[in-house]
Amino acid sequence: MEKEVVTVMSLCPLTFWRRCPFPVVLALAGLAVSLLAGTGWAAGLPATIPEPVGYGVLPAMTPTTVFVAAGGQLKMVDVATRELMGEIDVSLSGYRPLIVPYNHPEVFAYAAERFHTRGNRGQAQMFISIFGYDGNIISEIPLPGVQYGVMVASDDARSLFLWNAVRNSVVRVDLASGTLVGEAYLGPRCGPELFPLGNDTVFTTCWENGELVEIAFQPGGPQLTYHPAFPPRSLVQDVHYYTPHPTLEGARRIYLFTFESDQVIPINVTEDGDVEEAQAVSLKREGMYISPYRYGYTVSPDGARAYVGYTEADNYRDPASRISVYDTVSWEQLFEIIPPEPFRYIAVTMDNRYLLTAGDRVSVF
Known about the structure:
Blueprint: E1 5-10, E2 24-29, E3 65-70, E4 73-78, E5 83-89, E6 98-99, E7 107-118, E8 121-132, E9 137-142, E10 148-153, E11 159-164, E12 169-174, E13 179-185, E14 195-197, E15 201-206, E16 211-218, E17 221-228, E18 241-244, E19 252-258, E20 263-269, E21 275-276, E22 281-282, E23 289-290, E24 297-299, E25 305-311, E26 322-327, E27 333-337, E28 343-348, E29 355-359, E30 362-364
Antiparallel strand pairs: 1-2, 1-3, 3-4, 4-5, 6-7, 7-8, 8-9, 10-11, 11-12, 12-13, 14-15, 15-16, 16-17, 18-19, 19-20, 20-21, 20-22, 23-25, 24-25, 25-26, 26-27, 28-29, 29-30
């Protein structure tokens, strides 16, 4: 019997972006999401995801909300109570990129979606769908010529920034007018991850030269500034984490994890946009290797701890078997977690209380 692919998302609020990393996606291969209970472990997600009954209105997010996506539906689950809270249809988005604002008065979610004129063939049209709390689409913003990769929001939640894979560029969408208001073209080997700063600026990475590119969208056009930030040609996974700096007031930090040299590269960005050139920190452990999976490691939303999955086998297909928890200032290992089953993905809820791992089952503790 073919296994169903289930995805769990921990999504960050738009209006509290300073306190959250990028949306974290957990992909789970299995027939159902299983329960897990035991010493030191909280109960897991529901063994089955029931159909919602009586949900005419979707509730606002809480710090323990996660999203389980299956069959084109985004199901809203509270980890603390294990209750299903509602769902919306996001079958055209591929589940990502998608942003759920934190208690927005009108908007439940923004989804970057793709529509083909003939099923899954023919001319493709990209657009942003804006969902209301009744689960229906309030409006759509067409994005001609855009093949989206990553989507992030400005601090004031008035703009969305998307990576355009077609032209190797970053586009800015004004949510009030529903129009594309700017596009910045980049060179090869840049992106696709985006890191917002303030209301008009985003950063992205250029791997060839080890640079962080600052893109400031101004009335006269985008201004690009290149900052030396990390060792050139670093072999870094194409998903990173962006949190408040653990000790510097107003500053933020980008974490780039390498899986071939078992290192992390922490890049500090001040509130004014100054970039501190970073040095790689070794996370190598004897006989162990950092998980090669896209979400096999994460950073807590408050930026204080890094959770790094390790595998004992030198094989990129093997799931991780244990988690080392590091202090992000000293990079000393605080403790180790050994989940009951191997896993490929890790996420932390917005309140920093629950850690989720996913392999054949989702475990919560």
